[in-house]
Design a protein that fits this description.
With 101 residues, the protein is largely without helices or strands. The protein contains no helices and no strands. The protein is elongated, with a radius of gyration of 42 Å. The termini are far apart. The relative contact order is 0.04.
Length: 101
C-alpha cells in the first residue's frame, strides 16, 4: 500500500526553466559612472537671456469632440441693420410695448 505523495516521477519538460526556478542570478555589471564636474557652477548672470521654453506640439483634434462654442459679439462692424424709414403714406412700425412688471 502506497502513501499519497507530492513529488513528480517524470522529468521536467525540455526548454528554458520556468520563471522563479533555478539558482538566483548574480549581480549585474555596475552602472556606468555619471559625468560630473569638480568645478563650482559659474555665478548667475542677471543680464543673460532666459532659457528657451520648450512647448509641446498641440494634440491632434478629436473627431468626437463637440464643436467649439462661438460667441457672437455685436460690434459696429457686425451690427444688425436699422429698420427702414417709414415710407410716405404708411404708418411705420408700431411703438414699442411697455415692459411687463
Amino acid at each position: 500500500m502506497s502513501y499519497p505523495h507530492n513529488h513528480r516521477h517524470n522529468p521536467p519538460p525540455p526548454g528554458p526553466p520556468i520563471m522563479g526556478r533555478g539558482p538566483p542570478l548574480g549581480p549585474g555589471p555596475p552602472p556606468p559612472p555619471m559625468p560630473h564636474s569638480h568645478h563650482p557652477p559659474p555665478p548667475h548672470d542677471p543680464f543673460a537671456p532666459p532659457p528657451p521654453v520648450f512647448h509641446h506640439p498641440p494634440p491632434p483634434p478629436n473627431p468626437y469632440a463637440p464643436p467649439p462654442v462661438v460667441h457672437h459679439h455685436h460690434t459696429p462692424l457686425h451690427a444688425h441693420p436699422a429698420p427702414p424709414p417709414p415710407q410716405p403714406g404708411h404708418p411705420g412700425p408700431p411703438p414699442p410695448r411697455p415692459p411687463y412688471y
